[in-house]
Write a structure and sequence with these properties.
By secondary structure, the protein is an alpha/beta fold. Helices cover about 25% and strands about 40% of the residues.
């Protein structure tokens, strides 16, 4: 069995607002329609969809593994994403599962954990 890619369909209560948020976070948006958009940074991508069920959105989590979590956090701070979008942003911490990450909410309530491996631990391939 082989596969090339897997993508999550991330909910957006206000698609235009979420698109601005993700562009400010650093994602590129090469394609979008009235109901969906394709977003990526490097080789990581997801589909943002005009869809909102509160219970679903507030229990949806994404994890982005990056080579330099401090650079990503400094970008979040420099863009003032928490204040501009009224979202949760907690600074990086070392986690017991060998990842240093920070927590960032999006305007819909989706929770992101953006982090990097620590102590030479690599993610399973």
């Amino acid at each position: 069995m082989q596969a090339n890619e897997i993508k999550a369909f991330v909910p957006a209560r206000d698609l235009a607002l979420s698109l601005r948020f993700y562009a400010d976070l650093g994602f590129h948006i090469p394609w979008q329609s009235d109901d969906m958009a394709y977003l990526h940074v490097g080789n990581c991508s997801f589909l943002l969809q005009r869809f909102y069920v509160k219970e679903h959105a507030e229990n949806f989590m994404m994890h982005l593994l990056v080579p330099d979590v401090e650079a990503w956090w400094q970008h979040v701070v420099a863009q003032d994403l928490a204040a501009r979008y009224g979202v949760l942003a907690e600074p990086p911490e070392d986690r017991p599962w060998a990842i240093r990450d920070f927590v960032l909410g999006d305007p819909t309530g989706v929770l992101w954990r953006i982090g990097q491996n620590i102590d030479g631990v690599k993610a399973a391939e």
